[in-house]
Amino acid sequence: MQDPRFIRNFSIIAHIDHGKSTLADRLLEHTHTVSKREMEAQLLDDMDLERERGITIKARAVRLMYQAKDGQAYQLNLIDTPGHVDFSYEVSRSLAACEGAILVVDAAQGVEAQTVANVYLALDNDLAIVPVLNKIDLPAAEPDRVRREIEDVIGLDASDAVLASAKSGQGTQDVLEAVVRTVPPPVGDPAAPLEALLFDSWFDPYHGAVMLVRVFAGTVRPGTRIRLMATGKDAEVHRVGILKPALTDVDALGPGEVGVVMAGIKEVADTQVGDTLTEADRPAAAPRPGFKAVQPMVFAGLYPAESHQYGALRDAIEKLKLNDSSLSYEAENSIALGFGFRCGFLGLLHMEIVQERLEREFGLTLITTAPTVAYHVHTTDGRTLIVDSPAKLPPEGEIASMDEPFILAHVHVPTEHLGNVIALCEEKRGRQRELRFAGEKRALLVYELPLNEIVLDFYDRLKSASRGYASLDYEPLDFRASTLVKLDVRINGELVDALSVILHSERAYYRGRELTQKMRELVPRQMFEVVIQAAIGSKIIARETVKALRKNVTAKCYGGDITRKRKLLERQKEGKRRMKQVGRVEIPQEAFLAVLKVGE
Amino acid sequence: MSGRFSLYVHIPYCQAKCSYCDFNSYAATTWPEDAYADALLAELRHRVAEPPFAAAGVATIFFGGGTPSLFRPRTIERLLTGIAATCPVAADAEITLEANPGTVERARLADFRRAGIRRLSFGIQSFHSDLLATLGRLHGPDDARAAIDAARVAGFDDLNLDLIFAVPGETRTQWEADVAEIVRFRPEHVSAYNLTYEPGTPFHTLRARGALAPLGDEDELWMYQHARRALAAAGYAHYEISNFAQPGHEARHNRSYWRGVDYLGLGAGAHSYAHLPAWGRRWSNERIPERYIAAAGRGDPTASAETLTFDTAAAEFVVLGLREMRGIEPAAFAARFGRPLEEIHPEIAALRADGLLVERAGRLALSERGLLLADSIFTRLV
């Protein structure tokens, strides 16, 4: 255990490509935490997926020992944060484990939108900010301009920002010195009842749930009987360690320290991010503030493209679930797509990540239905149902009223795009709560918005409305009464259940037209006419026709053509086999995927 | 398959490569004619040493290309003599030569006949100079007319004329005129091909780039149906998807491809089929002429081979057989494969129910509507 006066806990905030991972690598190297040879570039992001997307999904922490110029050895805990709105709660918990944050800004490109929201989050958590101008060695670097920008846009004093090049290693020591100087040391009584914030957990096949914690008060050591205050779970600690970055056992973790705790807990669901570890026999008076139970907000059907992969899909989802307690799933059956799963996600990115991991790590090919949110449906006989799938919506006659979830959205946007973004929020049935200006160039818009509009295409629209400069961050608000309808798609009269969506009545006509037009482009001509209709109940609101194939015949087939033609036919047959059958109509998988991309 | 086979001889040279052509052919001004002919005969001797060609008789011979009429009649004669010396050729064998209606070839027609050619097949394609130019043909409409007359003068009484329709820019009126003119020449046989855009051809590339606008479905359909109507009215039986003949003049050689008769293909890139061993075998030769010549000289010019499985053989039986208007005989299928047709191809029931396949005189055939959607049907039968 280290004297808290010589501990610094911090994270790094940066826009993608501004050099967060490279800087982290330099800090690890400079402190001899890892050698250069061990440095598989971008050590902190350990999943391929994250590397490719340039985001960090799971928080990690690594301990660095730094011999500062004042002659003192410091324990530096670098806590990595996930970088997307779906994980804003996880980000806030990671930041809550820190006293400071390094703000990395590209000295050539300046402040980018994505950074700003996280800086505000850091400021909300009272973190000390260490500004670093990175890529200072680039010819295009303009440190003075970018310094002013940090002051204007974020409202942060950047006069003593560190100039660095994470690539060349220039300024690395200055960064470490600035952290020691600027970030305040933690305080806490090692003899007090244990109070440790759980800010990440993952499943290990040998140890069960591994908890990454920051101790605020008290001491945790092997043998401590702990209690997780939110879930009420008690367990005995059998191992305590730190990550540097390999797991290293320690005798104890004291106030201010960051490390992992293993207590033989089998389910990661029992180790929720934001929970507080205390002692079972001597609990703290109150848990650390800010805990929220994470709940799925977005739901979609996941189906194997080929029905024989159903078992493999189930196994794969179960495996992902071991490490991802925010993922929920239940079996679902679609007329068009067969057997699959209704899955719940934190948000759209979470959904995309799960989808990609299933496809990449488990070799599955999936069809995903349009994402939806959970509605509260009040029936005429006085019950309230939670409906997370259009298929579960009771018949029109049994519905008395419906409520839809609203969120509180914080949109940071440069003032030049403010008009566009306000127009978008209004179009999306939003209600403005607040408009605040930060400096001359930046505004913060606070809107109440229906979540189903966000799920539809809000990200893409926001991106184009602000040329990528707006950032979105949201939290669930409440449920509100709304006039919602179920929009169905019928193909030659048959309902394609996988294409149904629940949406606001004012949206239905437009969406119906778009959907049928898109389908017309994607459904290949068949031997008979195909009629595609959009309907609300029994009322048809849009109709498109795919004309029957009139002629499809190969003119020539002689001796030299036979093998080639047969193989061509076999390939076509293979293509047909992968299509989904609705009645007698064959629908390519792309049709199910493309309806997700219906934009306005 | 009663000890008879068809012999195909591929001559891979052309004066120019047509923009739609995906055959194994090479534009050339000179070619190693004697060496190539030697290679063909060497390959023949190699192939007939083994079953099913050993001791079997040749029912038909077809010189295809490329442009076989570029070869000297003397070379053709040497080949026919060489073939007859290697394996028995039936007295009534159909012996066809593909020819271009160009001037050079026209002058040689009588000599080809003397060399032993009994049937000529001309690539007329169109009687419209604009369409011939689009297709990249070197001959003009009058060359075509002169060639047909010359063939008759030379004594050919078995003539096939090829036509192509749905050429970019072609009008229905132009096609009507082409069909009408063909009929006036009274050829024994007519092939009318809907233009296709084959991968690897300039036409395919141009279409993909949008530089070539294919005719619409409706025009293609109309032209096909017009050809069927007009040729039927003139006494030509429509016996295969693209083939029409006066009674008794169906192309026997080509028919063997659709009926699963053994055929031996000699020459660069030529394909062969043998119904033995097991479910049959298909192979093809080295495509590049020089490499073919060298390989044939060494013994075996085979480049790739495929042994058919029960499934592929059963699929071929059906999709090839259905190309002929008379269709397939379920009993013949059962005899070859040991199980009933509809058991191996359960889709047939649905296709019949939809009126795409019909039963006609104890045979199963494409219906009128099925004919137009043959490929969609075949996809369900492989």
Q: What is shown here, in short?
A:
The complex is a heterodimer of chains A (600) and B (382). Chain A has 600 residues and is α+β, with helices and mostly antiparallel strands. In chain A, 26% of the residues lie in helices and 33% in strands.
Written account of the structure:
The complex is a heterodimer of chains A (600) and B (382). In chain A, helix 1 crosses helix 6. In chain A, the strands form 6 sheets. Chain A has an 8-stranded antiparallel sheet. In chain A, strands 2-3-1-4-5-6 form a 6-stranded mixed sheet, sandwiched between helices. Chain A contains 13 helices and 31 strands. In chain A, 26% of the residues lie in helices and 33% in strands. The termini of chain A are far apart. Chain B contains 17 helices and 16 strands. Chain B folds into 2 domains: 4-257, Aldolase class I (TIM Barrel, Alpha-Beta Barrel), CATH 3.20.20; 310-381, Arc Repressor Mutant, subunit A, CATH 1.10.10. The model of chain B has no long low-confidence stretch (mean pLDDT 95). Chain B has a 9-stranded mixed sheet with strand order 9-10-8-7-6-5-4-1-11, sandwiched between helices. Chain B has a 3-stranded antiparallel sheet with strand order 12-13-14, with no helix packed on it. In chain B, strands 2-3 form a two-stranded parallel ribbon.
From the structure above, extract its key features:
A: 600 residues, alpha+beta, eight-stranded antiparallel sheet, six-stranded mixed sheet, B: 382 residues, alpha/beta, TIM Barrel, Arc Repressor Mutant, subunit A
SS elements, strand count of chain A: 31
In the predicted model, the low-confidence regions of chain A spanning at least 5 consecutive residues are 41-59
Biggest interface: A-B, 23 and 45 residues
Q: What structural class do you assign from the helix and strand content of chain A?
A: alpha+beta
Mean pLDDT of chain B: 95
The third-level CATH topology of the largest domain in chain B is TIM Barrel
Which strand-content bin applies to the residues of chain A?
25-35%
Using only C-alpha atoms, the radius of gyration of chain A works out to 27 Å
